[in-house]
Amino acid sequence: MKIESDVTAFTISCVIPTHNRSDFLAKSLKSISEQTLSPLEVVVVSDVVDPSAEQLCQELGASAPYPIRYVYDPETRGGASASRNVGAREARGDVLAFLDDDDLWLPEYLEKVTALLSSSGQDMVVTWRTLVKGGVTVDGPAMEEGLRASDVVAVSYGTTGSNMAMTRGSFWRADGFDDQMPVKNDTDFFFRFLKAGGSYAVLRDRLVLQVKHGSGQLTNNDERRAAGTEVYMQKHRSDLKLKDRRHLRLSIHRIRYHMAPDPVRRYYHLALALVNYSPAKYLEERRLRRMWLDLDRKYGEWEAQNAMEPASIR
Q1: Which of 13, 229, 265, 275 would give a disulfide with 93, using CB separation of 3.0 to 4.6 Å?
Q2: Residue closest to 98 by CA, chosen among 86, 112, 115, 116
Q3: Structural domains in the chain plus CATH codes
Q4: Confidence class of residue 2 from pLDDT cuts 50, 70 and 90?
Q5: What is the DSSP letter of 42?
């Protein structure tokens, strides 16, 4: 039985940025419809004209116990960050719960987030997540409590666009998402959130499914990400310690090493990557990247197994 949002301490607005992915969006909206705690509303924000998404919101909203509003503002800069900010301005709830259009929430997500916000008195709840690719899953990053702004300026320890829910006031005290930032949007926001005095609690249940796929995700390692990381370094240069700068430079040169069109440039970026490497960094990366490597490995095994099965079995 669903618990209606008007009997809780907070009202919740779910904000979903979308970009020409109505097939993914339909699944995300379905995961909200299955919540044990209904939100006050869902605000879907597109940064392009998207008739399919608009029609989907109208159709699902007609039978949902809460409004589903489709918003498109042609004057707003494109990108997920700008869309999240538009959604936050449009939202009426006490709490903003962000969900990317290709991710999913398990049914108890909103109920448990609201309960923890109420009991902890914190501004934000960060929820543990599961990484999903094809038919395989692995445990995602396990955020811990007590991190300071200086701890997260260069490295994300578990925040993403789908597992942060926060009070409206704390969101705007951090000035929302930076729509000028091409990559590391979630890291940038969480750093500024803590720097602005925001506090957070951790929900240790894996109630968020982060879906990995090949349809234009910002986490893809390409030149856009490398150049965007340089923009990030410039923005936060006064807050970055030496270890932070080394971490970000390593990321940039690793990407460019894999993308290099010839051996000369490949070895150039390899040399610069090694300059920024250390035994401590190796151990940290093994811990942070293990889950992503496990996901790719298991996905490869899953694909190979499916390819071997007769079509009648699949």
Answers
A1: 13
A2: 86
A3: 5-211 (3.90.550.10), 223-308 (no CATH)
A4: very low
A5: E
